[in-house]
Amino acid sequence: ISGGAITLKPAPKKGWKYEGCLAEGNLLTDNPLTITPKGDMEVEIIFTQITSKLTYNVQGVDVIAETVLAGESLPAPDTYRVGLEFTHWELEGNIYPEDGEDLQEAIKSLTLKGVDVTVIAKHKPLAYYSIVTSGAALQISEEPNAEGKYPVKTEFSVVPVGEGKFSHWLVNGKKVPAISDTNVTYSDLLT
Questions:
Q1: Which of 50, 68, 94, 130 could form a disulfide bond with 72, CB atoms 3.0-4.6 angstroms apart?
Q2: Is there a contact between 81 and 59 (Cβ–Cβ < 8 Å)?
Q3: Residue 42: how many CB atoms within 10 A of its CB?
Q4: Could you give phi then psi for residue 70, rounded to 5 degrees?
Q5: Tens-place pLDDT, residues 24-81
Q6: Exposure b/e, 125-154, CB count within 10 A at least 16 = b
């Protein structure tokens, strides 16, 4: 076409985005783009793949934080944490009971749009660990029976971790007597 205007309407494929057209050394970003060549003209249309940052957060720690291509996902990491029971994954206010097809499809639909995604693992304390807060590990001398109850003389011990220090035993909102600063028996918990 000599002396006439040409209108280009670049249409990216799914998972790609239009960045612009390179014509005579100039990057032109309009879409549609109308140009009027003054002779032979080479136009390069530039598309780039859409990427997103996908983060899996477990107990406040980003255990996976990677860039993924549009429409892609990564398998969820292990959710096991001492003293905690995994309950569900949370993504944009929605709850997913497991790392199944529903969660993966929700992640893929967001990464297809170029949205950064954070998936959070939710946990609840196991009943016999609920007396321990952060900064400590719990050691138990006996295992619970089939009903989840401990023998009467089971000893619970707190071992401070890192900068953690033992403060006191608190059961159902009440301080309880202890054998020592860091030990208490199950029979003490019953009083």
A1: 68
A2: yes
A3: 8
A4: -55, 135
A5: 888 999 999 998 888 888 889 999 999 999 999 998 899 999 999 999 999 999 998 8
A6: eeebbebbeeebebeeeeeeeeeeebeeeb
Amino acid type, 25: G
**What is the rounded distance in angstroms from the CA atom of residue 66 to the CA atom of residue 143?**
39
**CA 177 remoteness from chain centre:** 40
CB 74 within 8 A of CB 54: yes
Q: Which amino acid is at 165?
A: K
- Quick: pLDDT tens for 122-180: 998 765 543 444 444 444 445 556 665 555 444 555 555 555 555 565 555 566 555 45
What the block records as the tokens of 160 is 């401070």
143 token code pair: 């295992």
Q: Are residues 33 and 18 in contact, defined by beta-carbon separation less than 8 angstroms?
A: no
Residue 32 preceded by cis peptide, ω within 30? yes
Residue 136's closest CA among 189, 97, 182, 101? 182
Query: Rounded to whole angstroms, how far apart are CA atoms 107 and 100?
Result: 11
Q: Which amino acid is at 33?
A: L
> Is 184:169 a contact under the CB 8 Å cutoff?
yes
